[in-house]
C-alpha cells in the first residue's frame, strides 16, 4: 500500500491555488494541434469538485453567446499550464448544478468579502 501512495504523491501537482465551487477561475490549458502546441484560456465558474488525490477533477462552466458550456478538467493534468483564481464566490453548497437552469443576472454569484453596504 505504501508503494501506491508513493506513486500517487508523485503525480500530484503542487503549484495549484486553493479554489472551491463558486469561484471564478481562468484555466490555461495546453492544446496540441498536430506538431504545434498552444495555450488556450478557459474562464468560468467552478460548479463542482470530485474525487481525491491524483484523480481529482473540477467542472468549469462558462456562457458564450447565450449557450452554457461545461468542461471537466483533471486537477493534476500535465496539460494544465496554470490556474488563476479571479473571484472568490460566496455560496452555501459544494455542487452548483442549479446554475444550469438560471439565465442572465439570476445566475450571478456574490463575491466573498465584498461589502454590501456600498
Automatic annotation (TrEMBL):
Coiled coil: none annotated. Gene3D superfamilies: 2.30.30.790. Pfam families: Ribosomal_L19. Transmembrane segments: none annotated. InterPro entries: Ribosomal_bL19, Ribosomal_bL19_CS, Ribosomal_bL19_sf, Translation_prot_SH3-like_sf. It comes from the Bacteria. The keyword Ribosomal protein applies. GO terms for biological process: translation. GO terms for cellular component: cytosolic large ribosomal subunit. The keyword Ribonucleoprotein applies. GO terms for molecular function: structural constituent of ribosome. This protein is located at the 30S-50S ribosomal subunit interface and may play a role in the structure and function of the aminoacyl-tRNA binding site. HAMAP family: Ribosomal_bL19. This is Large ribosomal subunit protein bL19. It comes from Gracilimonas mengyeensis. The gene is rplS.
